[in-house]
Every structure is written in structure tokens, then in C-alpha cells.
Amino acid sequence: MERMGTLPVRTGHAVADDGLHLYWRAVGTGPVLLCNNGVGVSTFFWSYFTERFADRFTIVLWDYRGHGRSDALSDPTCGDVAVSRHTRDMLAVMDAAGIDAAVVCGHSMGCQVGLEAWRHHAPRIRGFVLILGTAGRALETFADNPRSPFFFKLAGKLVARLGERTHALARPILRSRIAWRFTRGAKLVDPLYTDKSDFAPYLEHLAALDLRMFIRTVNAMQQHDAWDLLASVSVPVLIVGAERDAFTPIRLSKRMAASIPGAELLVLADASHAAIIEQPETINHRVERFLRERQPFAAP
Q1: Is 219 helix (H, G, I), strand (E, B) or coil?
Q2: What's the pLDDT at 300?
Q3: Is the pLDDT of residue 1 over 70?
Q4: pTM over 0.85
Q5: In whole angstroms, what is the distance from residue 296 CA to residue 13 CA?
Q6: Residue 227: CB partners within 8 Å, gap ≥ 6?
Q7: DSSP 3-state assignment of 103?
């Protein structure tokens, strides 16, 4: 068995119902915190979270299809990338890792993936930690521009038309210094709190993705809607929103908190959609309190 310091580490590949292999990694022992990534992201954004909690919990990390160390789609132009597909993959990972139930932690699209699981598999969810996400129709509020769905749909058509040439154009830019300078200059991340070493893996991972699959996945987020489920959520929920999140505005976090009975809300000042690596101490401290007070089964 692999180890991270003194902690046990298990790795494997779950087999989805369509035969695709999904990478997963479990660090530590104890009650399970299952971490769902954002779109275009691998497990690296959960590094501070893992460091904080793996001494008392089992932290399960995994990659969506077409991401990280999971299998690529055989055809990135038409393979299923719907939120409901990723939810079924999440459950396959739980089965492969021997997990009956878990507190589901989601970042960005990972919130939608987790909430969709509540629709048909509620007994397997002991709670939610929803970080910088929404319950559905994600593009309608992207950058507070009502035309965002149109622009992403147009981008999808352009990328599909360019085909493989898309990568020849985009990858050198994503791997250049320009990408980091633009990201900070446009304040897509907080320029004071975000360290380049924390964000660089995201740019590299995005460059390695098939961008046709990526844009299709982003557009699929717009087709998913779990707002109708929120009133039925009966497990403890912590929602984390950021005041300067240009991707999922803070009003969405407030709306989710108001829609879920008993939900708690943490609002981060001066934080962006990358707050999970900008302000990990604040987030982790609040998650620790939530687990202690609202998840008695998870008490260390």
C-alpha cells in the first residue's frame, strides 16, 4: 500500500457502466469525505483540504472522464459528458473504493454532480460541503452576462469546426507566461492571495485536455438543473461562496442556502472562484467546525 507520510493511500480505477475507467485515490482512514472537482480540474485543487483532514478522515479524490488519469473519451465530439453522467461515475467510484456513504464535497461543477446524486441515491449521502458552485443552469449567471450561454454555445461550434487545430492554437498559450499574467490581470483569481505554484497545475491540466470535450462539458452544465431538489435535502449542508466569484456569483450561494433547510453559509471576502486555493485556511477551519457540530458520526 502506498503512503503519504504516515497515512495510508489506496488508488485504483473504477469501471463505469459504459466500460470507461475512472481514476480514484483514497488518503487516510475514517469517515469519508468524497471530493468532486470542478470542470477542467483534476485533484490538485484539494491538496490543502487533504492535508488538513486526512489524519482523521478518508479523503477520496477522483477524476472525471476525459480528465486527469481517467480514460479519455473515445470520441470527444460526441461522448456523454452530462452532469448526470458524472454523477453515475461518482457512484461507480464509491463502489470501487468500498464506500457505502460519504459527505460529498464539491467545487464548482462538483456541486452539481453531488446534488444530482441526491435525486436517486440520497441514502449514500451524509452531508454536503458545496464550495463556489450552483445547483444548475450554471452559464446563465456566468460573469453576470445573460448572453453567456450563447457565447459558450458559439465557442463549442468554433472548437468543433477547428477540430484538432484547436489544440495547436490553444496549448502553447495556456503553457506560456501569458496565461498566468492574463489570469491575474483579469482578476479571474485574486492576485494577492493566489500563488502561481497553486494555479499552474490548472493551466497545465487544461492544456492537456481535449478542448472539444471541455467546452461540451461546460455547455452540459447549463443543461443540468437540480434547484428543484434543494427543498428536499435533509442532511447537513455547508455552502461556501465568494464575494468576487465571477463564475458562480455569491447570490447563487445565498439562494442555495435559503432553499436548503438548515443549510449554513460561509461568505468569503476578497475571494474568487479559485478560493479553494486562495483561502484554504479559512475554508478548512469552517469545514472543520461544520463536521464537528453537524456530523456527529464524523467526530474524530
Answers
A1: helix
A2: 45
A3: no
A4: yes
A5: 31
A6: 135, 136, 137, 259
A7: strand
